[in-house]
Amino acid sequence: MERTLSIIKPNAVKKNVIGEIIGRFEKNGLRIAAMKKIWMTKEEAKGFYVVHKERPFYNDLTNFMSEGPVVVMILEGENAILKNREIMGATNPANAAPGTIRKDFAENVERNAVHGSDAPETAAFEIAYFFSALEIM
Ligand code: ADP
Ligand code: MG
Hints:
Layout: E1 2-8, H1 10-14, H2 18-27, E2 31-38, H3 42-48, H4 58-65, E3 70-77, H5 80-88, H6 101-105, E4 114-116, H7 120-130
Antiparallel strand pairs: 1-3, 1-4, 2-3
Helix pairs in contact: 3-4
């Protein structure tokens, strides 16, 4: 059993496809251990993506992530981190496989619909960034 952090990004929330995206996680055997809709400030988005602070896209990315509400979730299941990354598809939707969330809902490499943790250490940091112990089933 493993846990990972998932975010439905502002462009996908705006498109009204929260349910469709969550359905894909559930169909693939992942369970939602916690979930909430929040609107991050620029500073909160910068803190979440601090690993990317030296990247040229950091400022644009954190503007995007704070432009509107997002849905943050803890997904739970066997190999949840890798499974979620497979369901999401490649970072750039141009390279994402058919049937993946990013292929179907991303606009471009930045506005790519979903976030998913990439390793156990980042999952632990990202889960603790948004959720307290009392909020996790
Ligand atoms: P992933 O979300 O697939 O783990 P990264 O961790 O590399 O991808 O990047 C974090 C986020 O930054 C991406 O999901 C995307 O929103 C944005 N991003 C990544 N690469 C670029 C890029 N070349 N140009 C603009 N935005 C990018
Ligand atoms: Mg990443």
